[in-house]
Amino acid sequence: MENSKDNSTPWDVFLYEVYMYFYMYVRVYNSRLKTNGQRNRARHNSHVESLLLHTRILSEIFLYTRKAQSDDILLDQLVDPSIYPKSLNSLINKLNFTYNKNDISPRYQINKLLVHATYLRKSHYNYDDLISVLHPLLFGIISEIQSCTKDKTLKKHISYYSKNMKSYITAST
Q1: Model-level pTM?
Q2: Distance from C-alpha of 131 to C-alpha of 83, rounded to nearest angstrom
Q3: Could you give the count of Cα atoms lying within 13 Å of 18 in the half-sphere of its Cβ?
């Protein structure tokens, strides 16, 4: 890997994922309003697929308790589990149930329908329900993580992303 020795910390990677998640969520929300024409549908689909990629990455950070690979980033590298507020544990449990619940779970839809060529997807697939179910949980977990950290820079970044996401969505409606 070309950038494997760039000295990124787990927080650097997490903040990048949070930024991309919020950025793409806004793009998806705004592009829903303009899906007329093939070009706009293609743009909307590319935003949705990017959002789902970052949704998957954040979900894995929040839900995995063991590293599959030595370089995987887990939530306990960001926040000491002994100081998780009950609300964070509750959101993680809800995300785990929702994300992994059955054969048509969000995890299955992302893994099978987004990242694999399959007849089930056909030439398009509507992920709106998946996004609307996972977004409140991911947003809540990110907010709880922000409340757990003492690092002012991290608090500032997460607060900035979440505040701007809300204002961009409000401005576009």
Answers
A1: 0.84
A2: 29
A3: 26
3-state secondary structure of 34: coil
Taking residue 17's Cβ as centre, other Cβ atoms within 10 Å add up to: 20
**Cα separation, 127 vs 38, whole angstroms:** 18
Give the number of other CB atoms < 10 A from CB of residue 142: 20
Structure tokens at 100: 């992994």
Length in residues, the chain: 173
Provide DSSP, 37-79. SHHHHHHHHHHHHHHHHHHHHHHHHHH-SS-SSTT---GGGTS
pLDDT 10s per residue in the chain (173 long)?
455 557 888 988 998 999 899 889 888 887 766 656 666 777 888 888 899 999 999 999 999 878 778 889 999 998 888 888 899 999 999 999 998 887 778 888 887 777 777 777 666 677 888 888 899 899 899 988 888 877 777 777 777 776 766 555 544 44
Question: Tokens 């507020």 label which residue?
Answer: 85
Where are the chain's structural domains?
10-168
